[in-house]
Write a sequence for this structure.
């Protein structure tokens, strides 16, 4: 049987896709900012030798890394509002569910990056009288960030793809808009193909960006990578 | 307590334990201004740990460390019949500014040029302007004979050159004392000489130096005093002639016999 593709019929609904794309981009922007800011904070706490910082950070990371992200989204949508007695829009629940999960992952990337720097770097900096914050800022992070980039770029791509999970709680992002349309005009083949292509077009530049950053950081005045 | 006017670093009843391992057992040591002291002994004797305690790369378990007459840290208790101290980051930073240290593994900052490596201390710790820091850094690079390498990155330098940059980086802080922790042990044999010669010049210029080394020839010619450590204690100390030529301790004789090619 030969399937008759009818993309023209579907593409006239482009404003519908566009609305979905905008929500996807908004959600992705929220998640990426959360992952970066939260990752640095939780990762630093996790790296600390002080239990008062280290333990809560470890508990947070383990909790969010070891439960499915879809369960987290649904929990924030259905259970959390009951606990705190506040109505929560789906967008916020999705941002919290996926976002906190991403914070846990990027915190581990951040910590691993810092720990990959030889102890001798800390010692040499301490030996000339530098203190913790200055050592972090001027000696450790400039070296560690280079090493974090491949892992973090990967994480960014994962985060972007995870936005589609928000469709499970009716957030009007790209996949959800696709489902709506597919159910209305009975053209699921074309609709979901378009959804997949749009996701690829949105995400592939991130992969290119990460290749470019790696290349740029590795070809720098003969400095070691 | 035997505090003399010209004593720069004073160590009293220093103990260091790593878990159950008692690495230093009540070390007393006093180093005079301008003196060059070499610490020798077999591996595991505690010589590197002693050196690293002096600028708190390791925190002493007990015992007092004073520089120019004032003890570092706040006295909080007693252990092994010696005082114990609590140290805060700021006080240690001030202490370390007076003490330069050079490591076996160089530990240069790989993301900075040679010049930036040497400028880092004056710039971020002493708060100098980048102009002043650069003048200071170029002066110290000149001192170790590496002016022409200022713009290079450390990875382009030989081990001996990297170690000389590390010495310049420490000197740029205008330290009162320099600590050397087996600084030639990871160098190819043909590169050892250039580093030792810089150290010899420093000693001749009157720098106070404490040197952990296996280079007995260097110790013999440069040291004012040699300390032999064994099992966390100073077994014998004295002028090079005495320790290396006429040691009374059989353990030192045994140690020296391991250096077959040892030639003064």
């Amino acid at each position: 049987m030969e399937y008759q593709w009818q993309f023209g019929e579907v593409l006239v609904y482009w404003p519908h896709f566009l609305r979905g794309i905008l929500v996807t981009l908004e959600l992705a922007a929220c998640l990426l900012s959360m992952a970066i800011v939260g990752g640095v904070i939780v990762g630093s706490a996790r790296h600390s030798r002080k239990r008062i910082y280290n333990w809560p950070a470890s508990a947070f990371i383990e909790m969010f890394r070891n439960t499915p992200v879809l369960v987290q989204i649904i929990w924030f949508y259905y259970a959390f509002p009951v606990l705190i007695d506040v109505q929560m829009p789906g967008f916020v629940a999705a941002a919290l569910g996926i976002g906190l999960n991403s914070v846990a992952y990027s915190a581990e990337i951040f910590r691993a990056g810092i720990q990959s720097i030889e102890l001798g770097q800390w010692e040499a900096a301490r030996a000339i009288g530098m203190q913790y914050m200055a050592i972090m800022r001027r000696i450790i992070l400039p070296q560690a960030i280079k090493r974090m980039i491949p892992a973090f770029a990967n994480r960014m791509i994962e985060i972007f793809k995870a936005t589609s999970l928000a469709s499970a709680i009716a957030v009007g992002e790209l996949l959800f808009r696709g489902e709506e349309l597919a159910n209305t005009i009975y053209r699921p083949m074309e609709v979901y193909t378009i959804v997949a292509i749009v996701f690829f077009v949105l995400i592939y530049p991130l992969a290119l960006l990460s290749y470019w950053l790696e290349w740029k950081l590795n070809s720098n005045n003969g400095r070691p990578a | 307590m035997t505090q003399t006017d010209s004593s720069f670093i004073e160590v009293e009843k220093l103990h260091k334990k790593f878990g159950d391992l008692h690495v230093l057992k009540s070390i007393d040591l006093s180093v005079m201004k301008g003196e060059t002291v070499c610490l020798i002994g077999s591996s595991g004797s505690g010589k590197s740990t002693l050196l690293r305690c002096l600028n708190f790369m390791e925190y002493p378990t007990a015992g007092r460390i004073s520089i120019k007459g004032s003890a570092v840290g706040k006295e909080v208790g007693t252990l092994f019949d010696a005082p114990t101290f609590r140290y805060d980051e700021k006080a240690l930073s001030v202490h370390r500014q007076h003490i330069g240290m050079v490591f076996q593994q160089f530990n240069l900052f790989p993301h900075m040029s040679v010049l930036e490596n040497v400028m880092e201390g004056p710039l971020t710790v002493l708060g100098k302007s980048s102009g002043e820091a650069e003048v200071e850094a170029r002066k110290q690079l000149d001192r170790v004979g590496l002016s022409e390498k200022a713009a290079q990155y450390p990875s382009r330098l030989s081990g001996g050159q990297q170690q000389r940059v590390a010495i310049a980086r420490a000197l740029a802080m205008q330290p009162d004392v320099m600590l050397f922790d087996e600084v030639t042990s990871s160098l190819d044999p043909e590169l050892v000489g250039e580093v030792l010669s810089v150290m010899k010049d420093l000693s001749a210029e009157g720098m106070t130096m404490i040197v952990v080394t296996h280079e007995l020839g260097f110790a013999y010619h440069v040291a004012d005093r040699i300390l032999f450590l064994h099992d966390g204690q100073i077994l014998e100390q004295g002028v090079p002639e005495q320790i290396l030529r006429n040691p009374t301790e059989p353990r030192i004789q045994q140690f020296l016999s391991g250096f077959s090619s040892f030639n003064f």
Remarks:
- The radius of gyration of chain A is 22 Å.
- The interface with chain B takes residues 118, 120-121, 123-132, 134, 138-139, 142-143, 221-224 of chain A (CB under 8 Å).
